[in-house]
Design a protein that fits this description.
With about 450 residues, the protein is α/β, with parallel strands linked by helices. The chain contains 16 helices and 22 strands.
């Protein structure tokens, strides 16, 4: 693979990360996206152009004979006009995952896998390596807030060092393409695929990893362990990285690994587990334990991962990317621990197939997690386009949750759901907004806060 590079669908999370990394490293990079026609000055386009990526509408105007490699994602149809033109020009056409695998092979790579927690842990590993002076590169599924504060998209970075930290996704089966120097498995829970299929994918990933760190607290990932000394756990004495002490503090944790004390500015036990995973991986990369733990204290978080939007008269609004049963369960537990009042949750499912897949498990988890005083609202399923069978609704998920004993409600229009939540909220409550894949969710979180503030 050689540049100049062109990305069809460059605005997508995975595509934009690779495009930015290559541009940061001095490569000639350009790309197109459907969204650029709707919003010529979108934050993603501005971030890409700031990184040095030339952006075009998706009309083949950016493709010419000088382009050597064209990168596509699964979302690009075989008869897409730009793809057809790329083949006419004789460009090498590669899938996003193959470009990522190629980048992994040219770096010392830490690959972070698992069905939950990948983006946060990828950011934590990057934070540790950066603080250590390794100047790593980054390919993540979500923006790091410290990079965003510098004006970047935050999901891709091109450092001068030899290390690359990537988020390795299992949802499309491409996890098996990566052969990292350090592989990390956070957890394996039913998500997108059944457990048997997932275990096979993660087992292959484990075999392809030079060194492997797994979570001993998750039964499936624990079954893939090679060396307990490289693994991590909140409690297991067999793990090489485990908490000998942990105490929740406002906004995070104070903890100890062996004789090393540290702090983590992220709430929730799932995030403490993610931090232990990052320390385990960093140790395999050669970072001393004390340096790895110290670096965690300055972590600013990840975009839309338990992100506090604001508060009004004692009611706090939190925005989160949670979208599968395990993630929703974990963030609800975090919210319950963060307030003495009620949790008033809202969830927008993303796609009809995922909604069908999670329907029963989500209801079961909600039935166990939500307290009698808590409530959850569902809105209609986010539809991103394409040919799908629309045989399920957010109303069906709400009904299933009610059968499990939850106070579950349905408001098809999310503004109506926000209005209902605002009407019920009282001091001490926490409003938790959850959903993924919909780029307008961040704006909706701010909108919900404004609806709260407009209450009489």
């Amino acid at each position: 693979m050689k540049g100049p590079w062109f990305f069809i669908g460059v605005g997508g999370t995975g595509m934009s990360a690779i495009a930015q990394m290559l541009a940061f490293k001095g490569e000639a990079v350009s790309g197109s996206d459907r969204d650029f026609a709707r919003d010529a000055d979108s934050p993603v386009r501005r971030g890409l152009e700031k990184a040095g990526v030339r952006c075009f509408p998706q009309d083949a105007s950016g493709l010419d004979a000088g382009i050597r490699t064209v990168v596509v994602s699964t979302a690009i149809e075989a008869d897409h006009p730009e793809l057809l033109k790329a083949r006419e020009l004789g460009c090498e056409v590669v899938h996003r995952s193959d470009a990522l695998a190629w980048l992994c092979s040219s770096h010392r790579t830490v690959a972070v896998s698992g069905t939950s927690g990948k983006s946060t842990t990828t950011g934590l590993v990057f934070q540790i390596l950066r603080a250590w002076g390794a100047d790593p590169s980054l390919l993540s599924g979500a923006g790091l807030r410290d990079l965003q504060e510098e004006g970047w998209i935050g999901n891709g970075w091109g450092g001068k060092g030899e290390w690359l930290v990537i988020e390795a996704d299992e949802s499309d089966g491409t996890l098996v393409k990566y052969r990292p120097e350090v592989g990390l498995i956070l957890n394996v829970d039913r998500d997108h695929k059944e457990l048997d299929e997932l275990k096979e994918l993660f087992s292959t990933f484990a075999d392809h990893s030079g060194r492997l760190c797994v979570n001993l607290d998750n039964p499936v990932s624990a079954s893939l362990s090679r060396s307990r000394g490289s693994d991590f756990s909140l409690d297991s004495p067999e793990a090489g990285i485990r908490c000998s002490e942990r105490t929740p503090v406002p906004g995070g944790w104070r903890f100890r690994i062996g004789d090393v004390e540290g702090t983590l500015p992220l709430p929730g036990e799932h995030n403490l587990s993610n931090a232990l995973a990052a320390v385990a991986a960093a140790r395999e990369a050669g970072v001393p334990l004390s340096a790895a733990v110290a670096a965690l204290a300055d972590f600013k978080g990840i975009w839309r991962r338990y992100q506090t939007v604001g508060s009004d008269r004692g009611v706090t609004v939190v925005d989160d990317f949670a979208h599968n049963p395990a993630k929703i369960d974990a963030v609800l537990a975090t919210a319950q621990g963060a307030t003495t009042g009620r949790v008033l949750a809202w969830f927008q499912p993303h796609g009809f197939a995922p909604a069908r897949f999670m329907r029963k498990e989500l209801a079961e988890r909600l039935g166990r997690r939500l307290r009698p005083r808590d409530a959850i609202w569902f809105s209609e399923i986010h539809f991103a386009g394409g040919t799908v069978t629309r045989d399920i609704s957010g109303a069906d998920l709400a009904e299933e949750a009610r059968k499990a004993g939850c106070d579950a409600r349905f408001a098809a229009d999310r503004r109506e759901a926000a209005a209902q939540i605002a009407a019920e909220a009282r001091p001490g409550d926490l409003v938790l907004l959850m959903g993924a894949r919909d780029p307008s969710l961040e704006d909706f979180a701010r909108e919900t806060l404004e609806i709260l503030r407009a209450r009489p």
